[in-house]
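Quick start: read one record
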Amino acid sequence: MPRLTRDIDLFLRNDSENICHLRDALFSIFHDESIREITVEELDRYPVIRYGSPDGFSLDFIVKIGTAFTYDDLEYEQIEVAGHSIRAATPETLFRLKEGTISPIDPNDVAYPAEFIRRKNEAE
């Protein structure tokens, strides 16, 4: 049930050290001065900030979704990607994040994790 995405959502803990690491990593890839505008204060003010990379790909940096989710509320799995260990939200977390949202595409996005969870439960 794939759907082409034009962005990636990254949930962040909004603290100075973490945001500094984020900016340094982004700048090392994109060399874009506008990255310096991503700050703890801006993420406090706007809990989702979209960064449009010079190559047209978007990164959404999320620190909270209303009062329902912050970084510390997410369940995750450690996965390996290109030799790096990263945290990825579990299918159950993705389902809870998308369930009941108002974005027109989100109901379709709920279908994939719901089907994944159903198949996983059947296999157990």
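The beta strands are 7-11, 48-52, 58-62, 64-65, 69-70, 76-81, 84-89.
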